[in-house]
Amino acid sequence: MRWANKKTRRRQRHPHIVWVLLLGLIVVAWRLYSNYGWWYALWLGPGDPPRSCVLPRIESPPDKDYPPKIGILCLRDTGRPNLARYAQLERFAEAALENKKRYASRHSYALVVADANAGNRPAPWAKLPALRRALPQFDWLLYIDGDALFANPEPRLEALVDDAYDVVISEDWGGYNTGVFLVKNSSFVAKLLDDMWDAGTRYGLAKPNKWWRHEMPFEFEQRALHFLTRSETWQASADRYGLPTVPPDVAAPIRDRIKVLPQCALNSYLVRPRLLPQDARHRAARYARGDFVVHLAGHKGANKAALLEYALDHLVRREV
Ligand SMILES: *[C@@H]1O[C@H](CO)[C@@H](O)[C@H](O)[C@H]1NC(C)=O
């Protein structure tokens, strides 16, 4: 009894210690979660074995009467990044660009490095006018984001292009992802790129959401593609917030010109360590060893930088 009394007394004397410890634990847990980049990268380990959608290996440009002239386009921030969170990526911008240069030169594709300046819009919008300008020099043009890397240098782009379509892209659980895609030199694509840009002005798609109201899905120019194709994701937000939509008979012919490939063919993700449902679409999105491209989609700021460093050191094949 004396022992019990003593314990009770002690707890009464220091009740705040428990709360301080608990608060400390919450702060540490929160820091670990919000700066997950470094531990997540370590935890990722060597990744899963190669999957069936590894591209067919084409040793040299296919021997056709008319081999397609394929180029690669990426953006480079020349001025100050106009979004604070991109500043963290500057450290790795050169290494990421080097990865693209090596892939392009390995297969003798032209690499176009365009200025990531979209006037008063966030930098990713610059891919639209840049593609528009470069397109006439090529039959097909691959666009690849700054936070996407060629992880496996072997596949050739000839294995991806398909002249029955105008755009080749992949979809994640939210639909089209414009981090990596191919466009054909066609009047359809020229109009699509112009319409995407114009939708930014005409329908306010280039404006950020208000922080307290996530009205428009996605960010930047990807939003414009979802708008013009009236994707399920766009439609869901439109129903909820009364956003504008294009008529179905305008959207359907655009969707018909777009070929959707599995993500692991050209746009695998290092998926965020979130408590998401591990459904088939999330599993299919996930980068596995042997995949062509690894894209750090969805990660922001310091986490993206940590994962980009990890991908450059551990996922990208050295001999690219
Ligand atoms: C791309 O298309 C334009 C317009 O049709 C054409 O003038 C140009 O020659 C094409 N470029 C190539 C490389 O075929």
UniProtKB/TrEMBL annotation:
Keyword hit for GTP-binding: no
SUPFAM superfamilies in the record: Nucleotide-diphospho-sugar transferases (SSF53448)
Record's keyword terms, sorted: Glycosyltransferase, Membrane, Transferase, Transmembrane, Transmembrane helix
GO molecular function annotation: glycosyltransferase activity
Alphabetized InterPro entries for the sequence: Glyco_trans_34 (IPR008630), Nucleotide-diphossugar_trans (IPR029044)
Gene3D superfamilies with a match to the protein in the record: Spore Coat Polysaccharide Biosynthesis Protein SpsA, Chain A (3.90.550.10)
GO cellular component, one term: Golgi membrane
Membrane-crossing segments per the record: 16-33
Domain of life: Eukaryota
BP terms from Gene Ontology: protein N-linked glycosylation
Pfam families the UniProt entry points to: Glyco_transf_34
Family: Belongs to the glycosyltransferase 34 family.
Protein name: Galactosyl transferase GMA12/MNN10 family protein
